[in-house]
Design a protein that fits this description.
This protein is an alpha/beta fold. The chain folds into two domains: 325 residues, ABC transporter transmembrane region fold; 238 residues, P-loop containing nucleotide triphosphate hydrolases (Rossmann fold). Helices cover 66% and strands 10% of the residues. The chain is built from 22 helices and ten strands. The strands form two sheets. It has a six-stranded mixed β-sheet, with helices on both faces. Strands 2-1-4-5 form a four-stranded antiparallel β-sheet, with helices on one face. α9 packs antiparallel against α11. The radius of gyration is 35 Å and the shape is elongated.
């Protein structure tokens, strides 16, 4: 098997839990907690649904008994004296029972449909909200395809269960209890003979439940892998086409798709054993009851109406069981999906909200990193860093790749928390600030700022959703973006396309700067914000930078030292430690690391 196909299947192994007993119990408990929390707000509608379902079951159970009464107390006397009274009463009662069953079933379907859609709405909202609150570290590990799989395939599997026959599941359970009780009440000897089939039914159901749980869990994992590969391939379509990767990607997709097909075939094979098995047990039971009951009728031990009712009740029992076998694949698929979703929802945020956040009415912008230790798993990036940035100062972080510059920026923006030490804003630990206050005070602009497939104006307004059109235009004018925006076909209403593809790299960066300017943060972090620009675009962006950095604390990370020159202070990093710290002109005139970096950069321009 090819290594890259193994790696894709390894995603499933990472996504799946070990299927031993202890883990299965944990998954079941976790799923039940999620389901209980989803149903808890709907207690009254649920009780109403249960009430009408019981009424429906009562109407269904009354029919065969009324047939018994009609045969034994109605048809027999008619033959003797011609009185149709009992038969008319029984027939009327049968019609009332049938209408009651119809009306109750209709009411239940309406109620269950409303509850089901409310549950799905709540579930989608929870999952989407939770994914947004999870840290970048989680999203770096959890691929976008798996995120889409949770929000679409897994939620749809639960939706199919709620929409496609939850009443069958509940009615099957009610039928087992109701029919078993009634059969014993009608004729105890025949009832005991009928109950001999129950152990076989229970054994077959238990076997199917145990094996199908594993099979349907595998189908959820397999379909997730198909979605992951599909999303990842299309997300990197330029690289795929540039390196002629299409045939290999197709091969991987066909292998994963084949796994999904085989997982579904395994599930259907189980259904192919279970459904006919139920039918076989039911037919054998009917045959035994017909022989035994017929002999009891002939020797006068019981009435023929009792035998007829027995056979009708057996039909009422085995038909829902057969329907349940076909419905069970939706049940198991939804159960597996619920396990996946509950696992995501129990994933703790890497940067949790404080229980009692400290107020930050207006940030001044002073940043302090005190004895900060940070590591990505076992790779230590910052062993023990102390860095202090006064309010209003522009600091440039420079150094070789892997020196820890971007890690410092992410800690300042609280995309991560330090393992040891603290990152403070105006003396307050970032871990003590609310998410809203922190994001209002600290904004990060990266090399590839994401532009949504919307208008230019809406992408700028993303920095402050409540901003007016005049505010948006003022922000664009301030950083020098108004001229090119105004020249676009629809001005500020021009759609930027997917990821801003209709704009040049420099234009996209100017839109990102206008967005940041509009948000008006106390601290602005620029992580390689000009590295992908050509020289003319860089000069345009640098003019915008001088505007946007005025009167605020700024941290600049750049390999192009032309961007660094606008800083008040340069901090040179090496393996997570500060090796130089001073004004750009002062360090450039020396013989240290910054002077060497500057000479190398100048030579690269020749």
């Amino acid at each position: 098997m090819s290594t890259d196909i193994k790696s894709w299947r390894g995603v499933a192994a990472e996504d799946a839990d070990e299927l031993d007993v202890a883990v299965s119990l944990r998954l079941r408990d976790r799923s039940r907690r999620l389901l209980a929390s989803l149903l808890r707000p709907h207690k009254r509608p649920l009780w109403w649904a249960v009430a009408v379902l019981l009424l429906q079951n009562a109407g269904a159970m009354a029919g065969p008994y009324l047939v018994k009464v009609g045969i034994d107390r109605g048809i027999g006397p008619i033959r003797a004296d011609g009185d149709y009274t009992v038969l008319i009463v029984v027939t009327s009662a049968f019609v009332v029972a049938a209408v009651t069953e119809y009306l109750a079933k209709r009411a239940f379907l309406v109620a269950s449909g409303r509850i089901g859609q409310a549950v799905l709405l709540d579930l989608r909202t929870r999952v989407y909200d939770h994914f947004q609150r999870l840290s970048p570290a989680f999203h770096e590990r959890y691929t976008s395809g798996r995120v889409i799989s949770r929000l679409t395939s897994d939620v749809d599997a639960i939706g199919e269960l709620l929409d496609g026959g939850i009443d069958d599941l509940v009615l099957a359970g009610l039928s087992v209890v109701s029919v078993g009780t009634i059969l014993l009440f009608l004729d105890l000897p025949m009832g005991l003979v009928t109950l001999l089939s129950f152990p076989f039914l229970l054994w077959l159901s238990r076997w199917f439940q145990r094996n199908s749980a594993l099979a349907y869990r595998r189908t959820r994992e397999a379909v997730a892998l198909v979605i992951v590969h599909f999303v990842e391939s299309l997300g990197g379509i330029r690289a795929v086409q540039a390196f002629r990767r299409e045939p290999r990607n197709q091969e991987i997709f066909e292998a994963l798709n084949g796994d999904y097909r085989r997982a579904n075939e395994r599930a259907f094979k189980l259904v192919a054993i279970f459904a006919p098995g139920i039918t076989l047990i039911g037919n054998i039971t009917v045959a035994v009851v017909l022989v035994y009951g017929g002999s009891r009728v002939m020797d006068g031990s019981t009435e023929i109406g009792v035998l007829a009712a027995f056979l009708l009740y057996l039909r009422r029992f085995f038909e829902p069981m057969q329907e349940l076998s076909m419905f069970y694949n939706s049940l198991q698929s939804a159960t597996a999906a619920l396990e996946k979703l509950s696992g995501v929802l129990e994933e703790a945020p890497g940067v949790p909200e404080p229980a009692e956040p400290m107020p930050l009415p207006k940030a001044g912008g002073r940043l302090d990193l005190e004895h900060v230790h940070f590591a990505y798993r076992t790779s230590v990036v910052l062993p023990d860093l102390d860095l202090h940035v006064p309010a209003g100062q522009t600091v440039a972080l420079v150094g070789a790749t892997g020196a820890g510059k971007t890690t410092i920026a992410r800690l300042m923006a609280r995309f991560y928390d330090p393992v040891e030490g603290a990152v403070r804003l105006d003396g307050l630990d970032l871990r003590d600030l609310s998410e809203a206050d922190l994001r209002r005070a600290v904004v990060m602009v990266t090399q590839e700022n994401f532009l949504f497939d919307d208008s230019v104006g809406e992408n700028i307004r993303f920095g402050r959703p409540g901003a007016t059109s005049d505010d948006v235009v003022a922000a664009a004018e301030a950083i020098g973006a108004h001229e090119f925006i105004d020249a676009l076909p629809d001005g500020y209403d021009t759609a930027v396309g997917k990821r801003g593809g209709r704009l040049s790299a420099g234009q996209r960066q100017l839109v990102a700067f206008a967005r940041a300017f509009l948000s008006d943060p106390a601290v602005l972090i620029l992580d390689e914000a000009t590295s992908s620009l050509d020289i003319p675009s860089e000069r345009l962006v640098q003019r915008a930078l001088r505007t946007i950095l005025a009167d605020r604390t700024a941290v600049i990370i750049a390999h192009r030292l032309s961007t660094v020159e606008i800083a008040d202070r340069v901090v040179v990093l090496d393996q997570g430690r500060i090796v130089e710290d001073g004004a750009p002109a002062e360090l450039m005139g020396g013989e240290g690391g910054y002077a060497g970096l500057h000479r190398a950069w100048a030579e690269s321009l020749v």
